[in-house]
Amino acid sequence: xxxxxxxxxxxxxxxxxxxxxxxxxKTLADVEQICAQACAAHGLVLDFRQSNHEGVLVDWIHExxxxxxxxxxxxxxxxxxxxxxxxxxxxxAIKGTxxxxxxxxxxxxxxREAFRHHSYIAPAARAVLCGFGVQGYALAIAGLLDW
Length: 147
Hints:
Blueprint: E1 3-8, H1 20-23, H2 28-42, E2 45-50, H3 54-70, E3 73-79, H4 88-97, E4 101-105, E5 127-130, H5 136-144
Parallel strand pairs: 1-2, 1-3, 3-4, 4-5
């Protein structure tokens, strides 16, 4: 079975507490459960991680590249949080490894502050999904099967 690597960036550990009017009341543990159910339904193994540190996320994408080379990766679902709008390093890691990645956002970033409208990750990702709340994770996991 192939692995769906779900990576969560800064402040996503605060889900359920941080701006519930924007992100809802589900916690990161709830999101992990949603992802586990989606992976089980699609015959994938879930590897679910969160870090507030950009370099750790880059290292995990490099690891995903090795998994892809070994034939064990279905793809990466990346909610990079604020790093979406600032990180050339994450963009370069995705492009450099060639991993199939979905950029994911819980909220619709295009109706929020102007600085959130630009993504450094989108040009390197195979797909972008935003505004579906935490159920977007299940949609993104399902999308990995089409590659």
